[in-house]
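Board work, copied verbatim: Beta-carotene 15,15'-monooxygenase
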Amino acid sequence: MENFNEFENTGTVPDRDTGNIISHAFEIYKGIFMYPLVAGILYFIALSVIASITGLGALFMEMGQNSQSMGSYDPEMYNDIYRSTPFLTFMGGFSIINILLFSPLIVGTIYIAHKKNLNQKIDFSDLFIGYRQNFLHIVLYGLIFSIASIICTNLCYVPAIFVMPFLFLGYPFLLFQNVSAIEALKNSFEIVKNNYGNFLLLNLLAFLCSYLGLIGCCIGIILTYMFYYSTMYSAYCAYVALPRQLD
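↓ predict structure ↓
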């Protein structure tokens, strides 16, 4: 298990304003984006295999073909599929597997961003630190994060702008302080509550920057989608401390 201590002087710490944090995150991310890129490719391959095994891939293809053959959107057909027990069971299991795969990769991206900031040698295995350290709490926090995101999305997206900032620092707390999921949520909430305006803007800008890749015919999203989590690291440095790894 990795151990961390606070206040290392060899890395850089951004000021507590949105522009500096975004710039800090960008400078780090442009030096590490190949790692989350490879991880993202492996992640999407794994999801495709799982979708194929569970039958979800075939189900979605059938839905698309039916929609094309009818030439229009049929809400009744989709409602029948969504209400069916096998579909809900598959989707529930698929979502859990998604969280199991993806949440540790978020922590790995944050860890690589930290090593880049300290000019330490980065190994590809660093990307998978979330599978080796505090795994259960990382997955639990990923579940909390996903549930909050889904609820906000189903309420026409607007609540996400105001709610998701409170969860912004949870993943760095899980990595650098090895706390429980609930403790990470509490710590993140306390800091964001006292700096809500800054985190409201930071969360929105980080999200928009992460999805800039959609402009490039959607292919560029593979390069930019993890920038959101690199911003979490920079915000942690600014509002908590710059941790260092102890050998």
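DSSP finds 13 helices and two strands in the chain.
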